[in-house]
Design goal:
Helix content: 10-25%
Bound molecules: (2R,3S,4R,5S)-2-(hydroxymethyl)piperidine-3,4,5-triol
Number of domains: 3
CATH class of the largest domain: Mainly Beta
Radius of gyration: 27 Å
Low-confidence stretches: 62-67
Strand content: 25-35%
Number of strands: 38
CATH superfamily of the largest domain: alpha-galactosidase from lactobacil brevis
Shape: globular
Length: 729
């Protein structure tokens, strides 16, 4: 059994790891171990024997006194019981006190993984493929229960943790911090890796040491945000020059798209606490007797072999057990999007010219971006008025979709359903529909306001207007955008209620249109998070299509998110700032590593550019399955000073692989560049066209151990490796 539970000792064995905790002093949950799989039986309860390690101090009790918690590694920390580190949970009791002592009551073990009410979460289709342990705890004074849930999945090293708070008392409890999980890992010798950035600079990798004190990664913007991603990893024993393949990595990824917080706290007792969940900032929830509050889940992942191993846990889990619907395993279409070509200034004729040029080079889908509705010629108006602009599109969306289909392309459409422009019929009719603090000016971002999705009438209106449009034409793809922060909630807890409303609307619309491929977007990658991937299996990674910048963005994103979730297009050269590396070739290869498409005026391409593009499309068709669904490994990091980056995608049967090599700045007389490939079958012989065009045959072991010499003066190259029978009888 992968989960072994007794009354006071719990052990979760995943594919290669063990996660162990116990009931300490008959009531508290103490964390014992998370790491490489241990032999059975192993009893680690002695690790929290406080009598041996207790250090007298004015902050703790003296030897022989009742249990104190400050020096105990905990699995779930509350407030006011002697543990003075950052709590996972904090609430005001009916009597005004804030002490909470969740004591162990019992456990429940089941196969499968229950849904989380109203929230996105990992799942398993077949109950035999996952197992869930629930630990029930109760505060004796208020009757409040916290039910800690742990799910594991067959063949995976992930553990999904969440908490359900249930008011079994007779009076209201005011929750201030509804943490999803906490853990105290032994030692302070960790580094914190997180993904930070900005619009156009999403998910840069930063590594900082754990110190004695608190480090917080968070969003208060109402979105998971461009600035911080709801992900943090602790690295131990990692060689910084080889983060991908050395040391242990402990990952924490929150399945939520709103305000979040992850804290990492090095404590005086020598352990490191990680706690994660909805951001307590501006949070307040009245939990009535009988009521429950379900937290979002955190997906924990462990790797004994660096970051590469961590991605190898997250990628398949998020691809198959978080993304849903028929597209999750389906090859994604190569598309042309008109945004960088025309902005909002287009005519039907222009769009069809672009579509025709796309069809000629072999693309499969046209996406009409912002500007097709109301009188939207700039970002000052019309959000909320989802009525086609007949001046731009005299034949309506159905006519445009029909004409696009006649060219052999599917038709996709942009929406921004969560927003309203002050200059819109919707706002004029319902100024009360947007988020607004009474008596204050309405804050605008990109000249727009946010609809209050906590209101049922708003949700219904949005569902019906998007539904009507999707029924009005042959639309098989939707890009769902969201272009501002949500910083004007009117009451405490409003941001979470709004988020739950957004999830409800997404659930209803995406399940009503199972044949439509939905893509998330938020000013590029401002909401690239696991919560969104539950509803939409892919996300526009960034508005920055400059290939040099984009390499970093894609590299950082790939630490958690699978290649099939990342959308990458060839953009206009004008978008870029770097003079080096603007060739079509470089831009194409950077985009071809993920879900490939174009975002420029193809109808203006020269014959030479068209021919070149045709070749990229042809090549992508050959490699699409491998790059979208293969195992992805980062080989060289663009965050290292040498200006190289490389990646490889390997088909799961290891019979085919595609490797990409980039140079992000010019090198003169630098040292030879040799790259060791990853993920191949060491015993198989791979055939590939080398950089000079000659056919080569090499064992996987040679390519992975001795490496491949990569040309120093090419900004972008790729090789496709195959294992023909001839060489592998
Ligand atoms: C932001 C998106 O990231 C862009 O791709 C584009 O769709 C614009 N919004 C349209 O307003």
């Amino acid at each position: 059994m992968p989960i072994i539970a007794t009354e006071n000792y719990f052990r979760l064995d995943t594919k290669t790891t063990s996660y162990i905790f116990c009931v300490h002093k008959e009531k508290y949950l103490a964390h014992l171990y998370w790491g490489r799989r241990l032999p059975e039986p192993s009893n680690l309860a002695h690790l929290v024997d406080t009598e041996i390690t207790r250090r007298p101090s004015f902050t703790t009790n003296i030897i022989g006194s009742p249990a104190y918690l400050e020096d105990t590694p905990l699995e779930f920390a509350c407030c006011g019981t002697g543990d003075n580190r950052e709590p996972v949970f904090h609430a005001v009791n009916p009597d005004g006190s804030t002490v909470c002592e969740f004591c162990y009551e019992g456990y429940h073990l089941s196969s499968g993984k229950p849904k989380l009410e109203g929230l996105p979460a990992t799942y398993s289709e077949n109950p035999g493929e996952s197992q869930t342990l629930e630990i029930i705890t109760k505060d004796p004074r208020t009757g409040l229960r916290a039910i800690l849930s742990y799910s594991i999945f067959d063949g995976s090293d992930a553990i999904a943790r969440s908490i359900r708070y249930k008011n079994s008392g007779s009076e209201i409890v005011e929750i201030l911090n509804p943490g999803s999980m906490g853990i105290d890992l032994w030692g302070l010798d960790y580094k914190i890796l997180h993904l930070h950035g900005d619009h156009m600079r999403e998910r840069n990798v930063e590594v900082v040491p754990v110190t004695n004190g608190l480090y917080s990664i968070e969003s208060k913007r109402g979105h998971s945000s461009h600035m911080q991603n709801p992900f943090v990893a602790l690295l131990r024993g990692t060689d910084e020059a080889n983060m991908e393949h050395s040391g242990e990595a402990f990952g924490f990824s929150l399945v939520y798209s709103g305000n979040f917080r992850a804290i990492v706290e090095g404590s005086r007792g020598g352990s490191t606490r990680v706690a994660m969940g909805i951001n307590p900032f501006n949070f307040h929830w009245l939990l009535a007797p009988g009521g429950t509050f379900q937290t979002p889940e955190v997906v924990l992942a462990y790797s004994a072999s660096g970051l590469d191993g961590l991605s190898a846990v997250y990628h398949p889990l998020y691809r198959s057990c978080l993304c849903r619907g028929k597209f999750k395993d389906k090859q994604r279409p190569m598309l042309i999007n008109n945004w960088e070509a025309t902005g909002m200034h287009f005519t039907e004729k222009k769009i069809l010219e672009i579509a025709k040029a796309g069809a000629e080079i072999g693309l499969e889908l046209l996406v009409l971006d912002d500007g097709w509705f109301g009188h939207r010629d700039n970002d000052l108006s019309s959000l909320g008025d989802w009525v086609v602009n007949k001046e731009k599109l005299p034949n309506g969306l159905s006519g445009l979709a029909h004409n696009t289909n006649s060219l052999g392309l599917q038709f996709g459409l942009w929406f921004e359903p969560e927003m309203v422009s002050p200059d819109s019929d919707l706002y004029r009719a319902h100024p009360d529909y947007c988020l607004h603090a009474e008596g204050r000016p309405r804050t605008e971002g990109r000249n727009q306001l946010v609809l209050d999705f906590s209101k049922p009438e708003v949700r219904e209106l949005v569902i019906s207007s998007v539904t009507d449009i999707l029924h009005s034409a042959n639309i098989t793809y939707v890009k769902w955008d969201c272009n501002r922060n949500i910083n004007e909630t009117a009451y405490l807890g409003h941001a979470h209620k709004h988020m739950l409303g957004v999830y409800e609307v997404m659930e209803k619309i995406t399940s009503a249109f199972p044949d439509v491929l939905f893509e998330g977007c938020s000013g590029g990658g401002g909401r690239f998070d696991p919560g969104m991937l539950y509803y939409m299996p892919q996300t526009w990674t960034s508005d920055n299509t400059d290939p040099v910048d984009r390499i970093k963005i894609q590299h950082g994103t790939s630490i958690v998110y699978p290649p099939s979730s990342m959308v990458a297009h060839i953009g206009r050269t004008e978008t870029g700032k770097h003079e080096f590396n603007q060739s079509l070739h470089f831009r194409a290869l950077v985009a071809m590593c993920f879900n490939f498409g174009f975002q420029l005026d193809l109808s203006n391409f020269s014959d030479e550019e068209k021919e070149q593009s045709k070749e990229y499309v042809k090549t992508y068709r050959k490699i699409r399955e491998v790059v979208q669904f293969g195992d992805f490994h980062r080989l060289e990091s663009p965050f290292a000073p040498d200006g190289y980056a490389s990646w490889i995608a390997v088909r799961q049967d290891k019979a085919k692989a595609v490797a990409f090599f980039f140079q992000t700045r010019p090198h003169r007389n630098g040292p030879d560049r040799r790259v060791r490939l990853r993920g191949l079958d060491p015993g198989k012989q791979y055939l590939f066209n080398s950089f000079d065009g000659s056919a080569c045959v090499r064992f996987g072991a040679e390519l992975m151990e001795a490496g491949l010499k990569v040309p120093m003066n090419e900004d972008a190259t790729m090789i496709i490796l195959e294992t023909p029978r001839k060489y592998n009888p």
